[in-house]
Amino acid sequence: MNKEIKLGTKEYLDVAQQTLDKSIRLIAKSIDKGLADTNDDIAMSFSLMTGPILDTSHSLLVLSSMGKMRDCYSLSRIVFDHVLNLGYFGAKGEETVKKALQHYHQKAFRDLDRKIEIKDLAFGIGLKDIDKAPISDKLKEALNYFTSKKGFEIRSWTGDNVFKKVEIIRDYYGKEIGMMLVINLFFIYRHSSEIMHGTLFGSLFARGMTKPESEQPNDEKELKKFHRTRISFILICSILLNYVTLYIINRHYPRQKEMEELAELIKDFRITMYE
């Protein structure tokens, strides 16, 4: 039995970083096996989601090594949202991917003529006479679908909130996958939102000031330990998200060898940390 590595130590953080790095490499190797070349909408959506998941996970490794807790929370939210959408596409099927493509199509068109006006403040850019330009029936359908009765752009492409998405993914892929998303929702989503939106709570949380007074950091050494602990949680959550990513891909486009390797990697990580 291995000696337990204490949470909040540099040793713990190092092992979490190494495990995340290995999981990134495993998934990268897996999707190199022609996922983007598979001729269907689900494979296309998986490929478009997995690239950013791996890219941002790598950025997370860089910032975690620098002790940038606030930025790690922001990046982990990006990873979570991409994994959530990947699972949502897989569970809901090609019609939902087509809906997402409609959303992309009309939004790209709207970007060609866009303006912001707030009282006497206005800024915008647009192509001359774009409103007179002929558009395809496909684009017209997309614009109609994502325009409200009052003529405003409908910004949500799904109509389902984050809790509903997790529920749908859990029902399709099983309780284990659903639980991994719930863990991320619990540890990441709330605090990343506060940090990204620049709230006072988010700023105080990053200083450990939202903990009970007796547990708040008293000096820079204790604050550094608090940051290491929170970054370790973020890395653990990101490792779980990588597992969810490959699990979902494997269910639709088998990559059993890599799936087994990733499962073994996470098992070794758990043994190192907790036994």
The share of residues in extended strands comes to: under 5%
The secondary-structure class comes to mainly alpha
Instruction: Give the total of domains.
Output: 2
Report the helical percentage: 55-70%
Task: Characterise this structure.
The chain has 275 residues and is mainly α. The protein has helices at 10-31, 41-65, 69-92, 94-110, 137-145, 162-173, 175-196, 200-206, 220-252, 256-274; strands spanning 113-118, 121-126. It has a two-stranded antiparallel ribbon. The longest helix is centred in the last third of the chain and has 33 residues, at 220-252. The termini are close together. The model has no long low-confidence stretch (mean pLDDT 91).
In terms of topology, how is this protein built?
Layout lengths: L9 H22 L9 H25 L3 H24 L1 H17 L2 E6 L2 E6 L10 H9 L16 H12 L1 H22 L3 H7 L13 H33 L3 H19 L1
Antiparallel strand pairs: 1-2
In short:
The protein is built from ten helices and two strands; from the N terminus they run ααααββαααααα. The chain is mainly alpha-helical and 275 residues long. It has two domains: 202 residues; 47 residues, no CATH class.
